[in-house]
Write the structure tokens for this entry.
Amino acid sequence: MFRTTIRARAVLEGIGLHKGRPSRVVFLPAAGPTGLRFTAPGGVPVPARLQSVAGTARGTNIDLGGTILYTVEHLLSAAAGLGIDDLDMEISGEEPPAADGSALPFAEALLKAGITGKPGQERPAAAVIPAFEFVKGETRYRVEPRPGPLSVKLVYDYPHKLVGRQEIDLELSPEVYLREVAPARTFGFSHELEALKAAGLALGGSLDNAIVINETEILAKDGLRFPDEFVRHKLLDLVGDLALAGLPLRGLRVEAERSGHAGNVNFAKLLSEKAQKQ
């Protein structure tokens, strides 16, 4: 199995979800075994790795050498979900475009650019990680070896009459990711919006790029894409955050309950530490 990248550049433009300003992402092929990287136009590429994480408040943020790049998880999720090993992502602005609030527009752009193998650059063997569990408060993660592609069971449980408990269990091939995970959109609760905007977040949010849940109804452009779209988006975020570990996660079974960006990043750190000890 060879490492993969894209054949040609791809561009998406829009506004950022949290900062509400114009933004642009250019996906660029990577010749070497560089992994996933971010860069500002004309800047030095920064590996999308755990040591570059600058914060996890309402998204996963990366330090580009003193400049913070916000909410990168959907880009990482699209690349990792499609099995792309090496890719440069050039961002103009403070965060990627929100697009429709999912990873699907990014995944479709990458597919249109063409995913190609890189003869002579072999993929590393799957990470060997022993079974372990990470629990913090009501958040729980567990991993154990299991043959085959990455298998994930995720539970989202929120005490709201329109949400409740949602559960999903998938083996994440690129085809399954594209069909079952990538289209799930980000969501938020109406009672949070005032505080988010006061904190300088969700300034670009609208029903074009997010689902809003209030006390009596779910507001979503053209309705929900899945009856359990919320747990699927949590899985989308988890895939993106785990990509920061830089590990080939084939041959693993992951279970997560009440996951979030902070928990995902801490779990990814543990995965990296456990793998390094093999």
